[in-house]
Amino acid sequence: MADSTRAGDGAPTLHDVAAAAGVSFSTVSNVIRNHPHVRESTRQRVMDAIAAVGYRPNLVARNLRSGRSGVIGLAVPELNQSYFAQLADDVIRAAGAEGYVVLVEQTGGRRERERELLRDPRLALTDGTLISPLGLTRDDAKDIALGRPVVVLGQPLLDEADHLTMQHEAAARAATTHLIDGGRTRIVLLGAHPAEQGTTASLRRDGYRAALEAAGLPTPDELVVPIEVWDRHHGAAAMWELLRSGTVFDAVFAMNDDLALGAMRALHERGLRMPADVAVIGFDDIDEGRYSYPSLSTVDPGRRQIAELAVAMLLERIMGTTDAAPGRMVAPDFRIVVRESSTV
Fold first, then answer.
1. Are the C-beta atoms of residues 99 and 70 closer than 8 Å to each other?
2. In this predicted structure, what is the pLDDT of residue 7?
3. CB 3.0 to 4.6 Å from 184: which of 46, 77, 121, 179, for a disulfide?
4. How far, in Å, CA of 63 to CA of 132, rounded?
5. Is residue 264 within 8 Å of 296, Cβ to Cβ?
6. Residue 35 has pLDDT above 70, yes or no
7. What whole-number distance in Å separates Cα of residue 232 and Cα of residue 229?
8. Residue 233 contacts by C-beta under 8 Å, 6 or more apart in sequence?
């Protein structure tokens, strides 16, 4: 049944909202459809009336009329990694506030799976897609015709898509500088991917090196620890191997919080005190870091803002409410969150 008529159960309709707000039915309809040419005072009066009468839109009828499904896709590498699980939660909340449902897919960070998802005919059931790729490359843009709105959560890859990214290099430099300001001179970089350029790992590595160089400190190879999979298991294993090697260090900058938490477990089992013996800082500001012992210092890259902006940018493309050319890139501000693991 259409939104403009009364359902058999007596549910409030747009006519009821219009009467309560003292405006026309077409004005209410324009507010519901987020029409840009509505005065803010009128929009607020209508929204207040919607709340007062308890109106709930018939989304099925609306979507049939608009040709949209009311569903967006979200493709992430792994939901068992805390950052991506919390990102998915933020996206679902932001989309839900706009009346959209989120279909979540896992890619395992595999290039072919990411390519498959962007070309999968099942995505025709969604109005647009948010994707956080790990394996996808710039070369993939040459033979992927998106055919629908896409926002990439990561570094620039697809010319037809908008991008939400992080200030990886600047944030890594700030995190390393925080350790240097605390008197640390032998700082481990945990989680490097040495062969990569222009990726999350390489940008954070560049920020780490820039901070050391600015402080006049060396960057010995033995302090740069490569780890392919950024999870707690590999963080702990890499730290145990570093400890057994006899390498001297007094701080750790981990490429993400999961690596940091794994490393802290190994340091604790070795009997090292944090931060007295080794200061630790991570990246991502996942919830678990607040409750570790000691609590984990970290970089907050603006995850919630990334999710909200990504949904907003995607919906602008879906609804055609932006004249901006595809290829926009936004990088929210970051902040250093100082907790017990890096300060005495």
1. yes
2. 40
3. 179
4. 27
5. yes
6. no
7. 9
8. 262
